[in-house]
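Handout, tutorial session.
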Amino acid sequence: MMEKVASAGLAFELTEDQLMLQKMARDFASKEIIPKAEHYDRTAEFPLDIIDKGRKAGLVNLNIPLDFGGGGASILEECIVGEELAYGCSGISTAMSVNNLSSLPITLGGSQEQKEHWLGERMVDKGQMAAYCVTEPAAGSDVAGMQTRAERVNGHYVVNGSKMFISNVNYASFYTVFAVTDPGKRHKGISCFVIDRDTPGIKISKHFDKLGQRAADTAEIVFENVEVPVENRIGEEGMGFMLAMQVFDHSRPGVAIGAVGVARRALEECVKYAKERHTFSVPIWQHQAVGHKIADMMINVEAGRLLAYQAAWMVDQGVHNPKAVAAAKAFCADMAMKITVDAVQVFGGYGYMKEYPVEKLMRDVKVFQIYEGTSEIQRNVIVRELFR
């Protein structure tokens, strides 16, 4: 981890509290995640025991405000923790951090009563998990194209539709769900709701068998005539799309830094291996083809971290800059994918074997180019902002 960088007369330095938070997360990853990561990857079991330990350590519900019993962390502080957890295993890290995402619509748009109940009582006091439900079978990148309907009937809403690729949905006690309340208004006709898991009409599929991040639960949820009280709507009708975009601005720096964590792990595994592995009577790092490949890994890890930190800092300061957030997410996802592919190449035939760590890193990191807005969508955002 780069703790201080001097450039053009400026110093970027973590505070003592942030360094302590970083060390706590790094120690947790070392002791609790890394020794068990292979097991959860192989079995695709959900890491409830690790999540429970993370909750007791203060690494779950990190961004819930202090007023409601959470960690009150800034987005930058979430990034500091997120890099360390993803370094250990990005699948387990995702499972641990979904509450941070699921709580955001309530934190950003909820009433005091909603925050006290869902964040304070349910997430913090009872230790419940939640799931964030936006993506649909035919509407992923095109959020405004969602088809799930919430029709107001006799003082409540009736929700019908389905959400696809939802993280932690089999283990969540409630869901923050985006649905269309006025089809004629397209993105201005979307609203957000909190729906309790015990509500009749909810069906959840089995955990999907995935390429990577296998420890993280991912499934489909279907709503069939699900009745939702009006008081469970977050904000006003028609504010859902704007709220979802605000959520992404807050969450994407954390996704970017997760990719940095995986890339850093690949870099360090390559450095270790390239010292030990000899060919033609010298350690392989002395071959320029290998040494330069590892040097490029370091350059990109450091650049990615700075982009993620910049995006996080901007959001923390209330600076609306979708271009910076999108650049961080796209760059970090793409560079981490390349680094893990190169890491397998550095390891050669051993890199292709499950007994070595880099093939898992390569499988795990691919989804960073897909979820929370594909790399292509991030570039669309950047183009839009450049040519306004």
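The second record follows below. Compare its token runs with those of the first.
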Amino acid sequence: MPLHSIGSGTISFGLVSIPIKLYAAASSGSISFHLLHAKCGSRIKQQQVCPTCNEVVDRASLVRGYEFAKDQYVRFTEEEVKSLEQEASKVIDISEFVPLPKVDPIYFERTYYLGPDKGGEKAYRLLADAMAKTERVALAKFVMRGKESLVLIRPSQDGLMLHTMYFADEIRNFGEIDKGASAKLKEGELELALRLIDELSNEEFKPEQYQDEYRLRVLDLVNLKVEGREVTAVGPQVQRAQVIDLMEALKESLAKRVPQEKKPAARARRAEAAPAKKAQASKK
């Protein structure tokens, strides 16, 4: 099924304007269920209920409120909310270019494909090639649905992608989390962990080898139910044993791995390390 544009805009690059189209880069495949009335099988409808007045409230009787303290709200009319929104603009004004590794992925929110609109093919190609050659990504502001968004544009697969991003004050402080700094590693544990990582390493990420097993099981069960066949519930899963000795767990994991000679990346790394080890041995 061909991709359909979900919007358009213009990338402002100095004095260069590049008309572009936006395309959704991904769509969630997660399974969702509807709530039905067990008695008749009808899908239920949700209602807005006021707990103070104990009555159902229709949309015409609702107003917006911002909670500034516990159970205390200030009200906003639709006109006030509209007045706060920025003027509709389709301009994506690039403010700076930075190396992609300097941008932590935690800031990424959603991804869109960018394609050239009519008349923008050459300028689009120029920007994409120049960014790929300099290994830089662009940071810009973009007004989406009346709200200003921070976005990142990066070259990828001979084209451009746009990521909406979180602002800095939306990212929670990781420093508040205990990271096990007080834990003491035993001698040899790090070396075994490095060997295990080496065994599990590949040179490329191949997303097609991963599937949503839960979704597949649900869909299989749906098909069985639709066909009217008897459904047998899956038994409880066997719980994995709790790891007590980290060293033994690492050794056991390595023992279960495929022989190292079958891993090209591992062979290459060991081949590079071999001369250094021989040189050290000859000095001794």
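Points raised in discussion: The chain has a mean pLDDT of 83.
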